[in-house]
Amino acid sequence: MHLPTKSINLKTVKFPQVRLGLQGDPGSGKTTSALTAPNPVVLDIDGGLTKFSGHDIIVVPIYDYQWVCDYGFEPKKPKAQPNRRDAILKFMQEDALKLTSEQTLIIDSWTSLQTAFDMQQDLEPAITKSGQIDEFAFWMRKIEYSEKIMTYICSLKASVVVTFHELKVRDIKTGQLLEKVQPLMAGKFYSQIKRFFTDFFRLINEEEKDKEGRVIKCNYYWQVCSDNQFDSKTRLTFPEGTFKVKPDFSVFSQYERKV
According to the model, what pLDDT value does residue 59 have? Predict the structure, then answer.
Protein backbone atom coordinates (compact mmCIF):
# COMPACT_ATOMS: atom_id res chain seq x y z
CA MET A 1 0.00 0.00 0.00
CA HIS A 2 1.53 3.31 -1.07
CA LEU A 3 1.30 6.36 1.17
CA PRO A 4 1.94 9.72 -0.52
CA THR A 5 5.08 11.37 0.89
CA LYS A 6 3.31 14.54 2.09
CA SER A 7 0.11 12.91 3.32
CA ILE A 8 -1.29 13.04 6.84
CA ASN A 9 -3.37 10.58 8.83
CA LEU A 10 -6.57 12.05 10.28
CA LYS A 11 -6.32 9.58 13.15
CA THR A 12 -3.68 11.80 14.73
CA VAL A 13 -4.85 15.21 13.48
CA LYS A 14 -7.02 17.58 15.46
CA PHE A 15 -8.89 20.53 13.99
CA PRO A 16 -9.17 23.06 16.83
CA GLN A 17 -10.60 25.93 14.78
CA VAL A 18 -14.34 26.40 15.16
CA ARG A 19 -16.08 28.09 12.24
CA LEU A 20 -19.58 28.78 13.45
CA GLY A 21 -22.40 30.30 11.42
CA LEU A 22 -25.24 31.79 13.47
CA GLN A 23 -28.49 32.52 11.67
CA GLY A 24 -31.53 34.31 13.04
CA ASP A 25 -33.89 37.25 13.04
CA PRO A 26 -32.75 40.71 14.20
CA GLY A 27 -32.68 40.79 18.00
CA SER A 28 -32.67 37.01 18.33
CA GLY A 29 -29.37 36.96 20.23
CA LYS A 30 -26.83 36.22 17.49
CA THR A 31 -24.27 38.82 18.54
CA THR A 32 -24.77 38.32 22.27
CA SER A 33 -24.21 34.58 22.02
CA ALA A 34 -21.28 35.05 19.63
CA LEU A 35 -19.57 37.17 22.27
CA THR A 36 -19.42 34.17 24.61
CA ALA A 37 -16.55 32.90 22.42
CA PRO A 38 -13.04 33.20 23.91
CA ASN A 39 -11.19 36.51 23.40
CA PRO A 40 -13.52 37.95 20.76
CA VAL A 41 -12.44 40.47 18.14
CA VAL A 42 -15.51 41.87 16.39
CA LEU A 43 -15.43 42.95 12.76
CA ASP A 44 -18.43 45.21 13.31
CA ILE A 45 -20.14 45.98 10.01
CA ASP A 46 -23.65 46.29 11.44
CA GLY A 47 -22.80 48.94 14.04
CA GLY A 48 -25.07 47.17 16.49
CA LEU A 49 -22.87 46.91 19.59
CA THR A 50 -24.15 50.00 21.39
CA LYS A 51 -25.60 47.98 24.29
CA PHE A 52 -22.12 46.63 24.99
CA SER A 53 -20.64 50.08 25.56
CA GLY A 54 -18.32 49.94 28.57
CA HIS A 55 -17.49 46.26 28.05
CA ASP A 56 -13.96 45.03 27.39
CA ILE A 57 -14.51 44.02 23.75
CA ILE A 58 -12.09 44.63 20.86
CA VAL A 59 -13.94 46.07 17.86
CA VAL A 60 -12.90 46.85 14.28
CA PRO A 61 -15.56 49.47 13.40
CA ILE A 62 -16.09 48.96 9.68
CA TYR A 63 -19.50 50.65 10.06
CA ASP A 64 -17.80 53.95 10.99
CA TYR A 65 -17.35 56.38 8.08
CA GLN A 66 -14.25 58.15 9.40
CA TRP A 67 -12.56 54.97 10.57
CA VAL A 68 -12.79 53.45 7.08
CA CYS A 69 -11.44 56.67 5.55
CA ASP A 70 -8.51 56.67 7.99
CA TYR A 71 -7.91 53.00 7.11
CA GLY A 72 -7.17 54.16 3.57
CA PHE A 73 -10.49 53.76 1.78
CA GLU A 74 -11.98 57.20 1.32
CA PRO A 75 -14.92 57.56 -1.09
CA LYS A 76 -13.88 58.23 -4.68
CA LYS A 77 -17.06 60.08 -5.58
CA PRO A 78 -18.87 62.99 -3.88
CA LYS A 79 -21.50 61.97 -1.31
CA ALA A 80 -20.52 58.29 -1.64
CA GLN A 81 -19.78 55.98 1.25
CA PRO A 82 -16.17 54.90 1.86
CA ASN A 83 -15.01 51.64 0.32
CA ARG A 84 -15.98 49.16 3.03
CA ARG A 85 -15.77 46.29 0.55
CA ASP A 86 -12.00 46.55 0.16
CA ALA A 87 -11.45 47.66 3.77
CA ILE A 88 -12.94 44.33 4.90
CA LEU A 89 -10.73 42.45 2.46
CA LYS A 90 -7.62 44.28 3.67
CA PHE A 91 -8.44 43.42 7.27
CA MET A 92 -8.88 39.74 6.40
CA GLN A 93 -5.61 39.68 4.42
CA GLU A 94 -3.53 41.44 7.07
CA ASP A 95 -4.82 41.71 10.66
CA ALA A 96 -7.10 38.67 10.74
CA LEU A 97 -4.29 36.32 9.72
CA LYS A 98 -2.32 37.48 12.77
CA LEU A 99 -5.01 36.44 15.25
CA THR A 100 -3.99 33.51 17.44
CA SER A 101 -5.71 30.23 18.18
CA GLU A 102 -6.75 31.64 21.57
CA GLN A 103 -8.85 34.34 19.88
CA THR A 104 -12.17 34.40 18.04
CA LEU A 105 -13.01 36.62 15.09
CA ILE A 106 -16.69 37.61 14.99
CA ILE A 107 -17.97 38.93 11.66
CA ASP A 108 -21.15 40.82 12.41
CA SER A 109 -22.75 40.42 9.98
CA TRP A 110 -22.39 38.60 6.67
CA THR A 111 -25.52 40.40 5.50
CA SER A 112 -23.91 43.81 5.99
CA LEU A 113 -20.68 42.54 4.42
CA GLN A 114 -22.68 41.76 1.29
CA THR A 115 -24.25 45.21 1.40
CA ALA A 116 -20.77 46.75 1.55
CA PHE A 117 -19.86 44.83 -1.59
CA ASP A 118 -23.04 45.87 -3.37
CA MET A 119 -22.63 49.57 -2.58
CA GLN A 120 -19.04 49.70 -3.80
CA GLN A 121 -19.74 47.60 -6.86
CA ASP A 122 -22.51 50.00 -7.85
CA LEU A 123 -19.83 52.71 -8.00
CA GLU A 124 -17.61 50.51 -10.18
CA PRO A 125 -19.95 48.70 -12.58
CA ALA A 126 -18.61 46.53 -15.36
CA ILE A 127 -19.63 47.90 -18.74
CA THR A 128 -20.32 45.79 -21.83
CA LYS A 129 -19.02 46.67 -25.28
CA SER A 130 -22.45 48.12 -26.05
CA GLY A 131 -22.16 50.50 -23.10
CA GLN A 132 -24.62 48.69 -20.82
CA ILE A 133 -24.03 47.61 -17.21
CA ASP A 134 -22.94 43.98 -17.20
CA GLU A 135 -25.21 42.37 -14.60
CA PHE A 136 -23.58 38.98 -15.12
CA ALA A 137 -20.20 40.44 -14.16
CA PHE A 138 -21.73 41.85 -10.96
CA TRP A 139 -22.85 38.43 -9.75
CA MET A 140 -19.61 36.78 -10.83
CA ARG A 141 -17.59 39.33 -8.84
CA LYS A 142 -19.90 38.95 -5.87
CA ILE A 143 -19.31 35.20 -5.79
CA GLU A 144 -15.55 35.68 -6.23
CA TYR A 145 -15.47 38.19 -3.36
CA SER A 146 -17.54 35.94 -1.09
CA GLU A 147 -15.36 32.92 -1.82
CA LYS A 148 -12.23 34.96 -1.16
CA ILE A 149 -13.53 36.06 2.26
CA MET A 150 -14.51 32.49 3.11
CA THR A 151 -11.09 31.21 2.05
CA TYR A 152 -9.42 33.64 4.46
CA ILE A 153 -11.83 32.56 7.21
CA CYS A 154 -10.81 28.92 6.70
CA SER A 155 -7.11 29.91 6.76
CA LEU A 156 -7.16 31.59 10.17
CA LYS A 157 -5.68 30.17 13.35
CA ALA A 158 -8.42 31.90 15.32
CA SER A 159 -11.91 30.49 15.57
CA VAL A 160 -14.58 32.40 13.67
CA VAL A 161 -18.23 33.22 14.24
CA VAL A 162 -20.22 34.76 11.39
CA THR A 163 -23.72 36.07 12.00
CA PHE A 164 -26.41 35.94 9.31
CA HIS A 165 -29.83 37.49 9.07
CA GLU A 166 -32.23 34.96 7.63
CA LEU A 167 -34.54 34.77 4.65
CA LYS A 168 -38.06 33.43 5.07
CA VAL A 169 -40.22 32.76 2.03
CA ARG A 170 -43.87 32.64 3.09
CA ASP A 171 -47.20 32.10 1.38
CA ILE A 172 -48.85 35.50 0.92
CA LYS A 173 -52.26 34.26 2.03
CA THR A 174 -51.48 31.81 4.83
CA GLY A 175 -48.11 33.05 6.08
CA GLN A 176 -46.81 29.49 6.04
CA LEU A 177 -43.16 28.91 5.19
CA LEU A 178 -42.78 27.72 1.62
CA GLU A 179 -39.22 26.50 2.05
CA LYS A 180 -36.58 26.13 4.73
CA VAL A 181 -35.15 29.37 6.11
CA GLN A 182 -31.81 30.29 4.58
CA PRO A 183 -29.00 32.73 5.36
CA LEU A 184 -30.02 36.06 3.83
CA MET A 185 -27.95 36.60 0.70
CA ALA A 186 -28.94 37.52 -2.82
CA GLY A 187 -27.79 35.23 -5.61
CA LYS A 188 -26.97 31.53 -5.54
CA PHE A 189 -23.91 31.58 -3.27
CA TYR A 190 -26.09 31.11 -0.17
CA SER A 191 -26.55 27.46 -1.15
CA GLN A 192 -22.78 26.95 -0.77
CA ILE A 193 -22.25 28.90 2.45
CA LYS A 194 -22.53 26.09 4.97
CA ARG A 195 -19.72 24.07 3.40
CA PHE A 196 -17.23 26.62 4.76
CA PHE A 197 -18.36 26.11 8.38
CA THR A 198 -17.71 23.38 10.90
CA ASP A 199 -21.02 24.20 12.61
CA PHE A 200 -24.12 26.15 11.62
CA PHE A 201 -26.86 26.88 14.14
CA ARG A 202 -30.04 28.93 14.24
CA LEU A 203 -31.16 31.24 17.04
CA ILE A 204 -34.60 30.40 18.39
CA ASN A 205 -36.56 32.24 21.08
CA GLU A 206 -39.17 30.74 23.38
CA GLU A 207 -41.48 32.92 25.44
CA GLU A 208 -42.63 32.16 28.98
CA LYS A 209 -46.07 33.51 29.81
CA ASP A 210 -48.03 33.97 33.02
CA LYS A 211 -51.57 32.68 33.59
CA GLU A 212 -53.00 35.74 31.84
CA GLY A 213 -50.90 35.09 28.76
CA ARG A 214 -48.47 37.95 29.30
CA VAL A 215 -44.88 37.37 28.34
CA ILE A 216 -42.71 37.36 31.45
CA LYS A 217 -39.48 35.99 29.99
CA CYS A 218 -37.88 35.14 26.67
CA ASN A 219 -35.41 32.26 26.54
CA TYR A 220 -32.78 32.06 23.82
CA TYR A 221 -31.29 28.86 22.37
CA TRP A 222 -29.13 27.57 19.55
CA GLN A 223 -31.03 25.12 17.36
CA VAL A 224 -28.49 22.39 16.65
CA CYS A 225 -30.73 19.79 15.04
CA SER A 226 -32.33 20.00 11.60
CA ASP A 227 -36.10 20.12 11.23
CA ASN A 228 -38.62 21.05 8.54
CA GLN A 229 -37.62 24.73 8.83
CA PHE A 230 -33.84 24.69 9.08
CA ASP A 231 -30.86 22.54 8.12
CA SER A 232 -28.21 22.60 10.85
CA LYS A 233 -24.62 21.43 10.67
CA THR A 234 -22.34 20.33 13.49
CA ARG A 235 -19.29 18.23 14.26
CA LEU A 236 -20.24 17.99 17.94
CA THR A 237 -21.64 14.89 19.58
CA PHE A 238 -24.90 15.83 21.28
CA PRO A 239 -26.98 13.36 23.27
CA GLU A 240 -29.57 11.64 21.09
CA GLY A 241 -32.69 13.75 20.71
CA THR A 242 -30.98 17.08 21.43
CA PHE A 243 -32.74 19.83 19.49
CA LYS A 244 -31.56 22.99 21.25
CA VAL A 245 -28.75 23.99 23.60
CA LYS A 246 -27.86 27.07 25.59
CA PRO A 247 -26.45 29.78 23.27
CA ASP A 248 -22.95 29.69 24.68
CA PHE A 249 -19.58 28.81 23.18
CA SER A 250 -18.95 26.42 26.08
CA VAL A 251 -20.93 23.78 24.16
CA PHE A 252 -17.82 23.27 22.00
CA SER A 253 -15.94 21.90 24.97
CA GLN A 254 -18.92 20.24 26.63
CA TYR A 255 -19.97 18.24 23.56
CA GLU A 256 -16.64 17.99 21.78
CA ARG A 257 -16.42 14.95 19.54
CA LYS A 258 -14.16 12.35 21.09
CA VAL A 259 -11.52 10.88 18.78
Answer: 97
